[in-house]
Amino acid sequence: MTKPIIGIIGAGKLGTTLGKLLVEAGYPVLVSGSQSADKIQLTIDILVPGAESLTTEEVSKRADIVVLALPLSKYHQINTQPLEHKLLIDAMNYWWEIDGLEEVYSDAEQSSSERVQAYFKNSTVIKAFNHMGYHNLGDDARPNTHEDRKVILIAGDQVDAVSKVETIVDHIGFTPLHIGELKTGIILESGSPLFGASLGLEEVQEQLIISLKEIANN
Ligand SMILES: NC(=O)c1ccc[n+]([C@@H]2O[C@H](COP(=O)([O-])OP(=O)(O)OC[C@H]3O[C@@H](n4cnc5c(N)ncnc54)[C@H](OP(=O)(O)O)[C@@H]3O)[C@@H](O)[C@H]2O)c1
After folding, report:
1. Does 1 fall in a domain?
2. Of all atoms in ligand 1, which is nearest to the CA of residue 39?
3. What is the CATH number of the domain that holds 135?
4. How far is the CA of 1 from the centre of ligand 1 (A)?
5. Number of domains into which the chain is organized
6. Sheet of 6-9: strands edge to edge?
7. Is position 30 within any domain?
8. Which structural domain, as residue segments, surrounds residue 192?
9. Which of 54, 53, 97, 36 is nearest to 72 (CA)?
10. pLDDT recorded at residue 191
11. Which residues on adjacent β-strands are paired with residue 3?
């Protein structure tokens, strides 16, 4: 089956690591940074060989599925129109050193992905690739026959869209696990015990039960 074209907005540590795994898994990959394509060309040629460097507008138009791998405080800079009716994978986290101390990006009550969904209101936002650091993402990918495969947790409301993200996660070398709706994704964010986790299925499920109980009691 033909694989969807994956766009990655953000050519930094996460975007390039993920891009490399996607190219290796046979996906057509398009990557953009904050400026023109030639500014990231060399980076992409070296770190994501096989991917194409474009502007964000071009990536948004041409990709079937788009990963948001830019600082959380920058997503408002992206034009929503070419992304309408597309699946967006929100990999962004609030990081005050990068995003500043504005409350609009940090909220103990609401997942940042719910805000991202509200902004891209005619797209479908699924939260994934947030909790695992890029080093682990790059180093821990394993084929699905491997017994010690690490888990990537996914939060999202729409079953079809979640299923597409699960397939991508599996193809790049991780076990996908859907934890619930987008709002549940708050347990994957910085400050949560799952943030930074690169764990196998059993360990992740143990922590997940604790984290889900905590939000149910709050
Ligand atoms: N690093 C990790 O281990 C990790 C893990 C999971 C999730 N995340 C999340 O992933 C996101 C990216 O993290 P990172 O560590 O990869 O950051 P990074 O290395 O600083 O890269 C950020 C990238 O985003 C680009 N960017 C900034 N504003 C943009 C805009 N308006 N349009 C398009 N691209 C823009 C930057 O381009 P310029 O260089 O041209 O400004 C840069 O290529 C963050 O939200 C982070 O919390 C990171």
Report:
1. no
2. 40
3. 3.40.50.720
4. 31
5. 1
6. 52-53, 29-32, 6-9, 65-68, 87-90, 124-128, 151-155, 175-180
7. yes
8. 6-217
9. 97
10. 87
11. none
Nearest CA to ligand 1 atom 33: 34
Residue 61 lies in a domain: yes
Helix (H, G, I), strand (E, B) or coil at 17: helix
Please name which of 174, 127, 186, 203 lies closest in space to residue 17, comparing C-alpha atoms: 174
Cα–ligand 1 centroid distance for 43 (angstroms): 14
78 within some domain = yes
Per-residue confidence in pLDDT tens, the chain, 218 aa: 799 999 999 999 999 999 999 999 999 999 999 999 999 999 999 999 999 999 999 999 999 999 999 999 999 999 999 999 999 999 999 988 888 877 666 666 789 999 999 999 999 999 999 999 999 999 999 998 998 899 999 999 999 999 999 999 999 999 999 999 999 999 999 989 999 999 999 999 999 999 999 888 87
Report residues whose beta carbon is within 6 angstroms of any ligand 1 atom: 9-15, 32-35, 56, 69-72, 74, 77, 91-93, 95, 129-130, 133-134
* Residue with CA at minimum distance from ligand 1 atom 45: 92
Regarding pTM above 0.90, the answer is yes
Query: Residue 166: what pLDDT?
Result: 98
Q: Side-chain half-sphere of 176: how many Cα atoms within 13 Å?
A: 20
What's the CA-to-centroid distance between 35 and ligand 1, angstroms?
A: 13
Q: What pLDDT does residue 59 have?
A: 98
Q: Are strands 151-155 and 124-128 parallel, antiparallel or unpaired?
A: antiparallel
Is the sign of the CA dihedral 160, 128, 25, 143 positive or negative?
negative
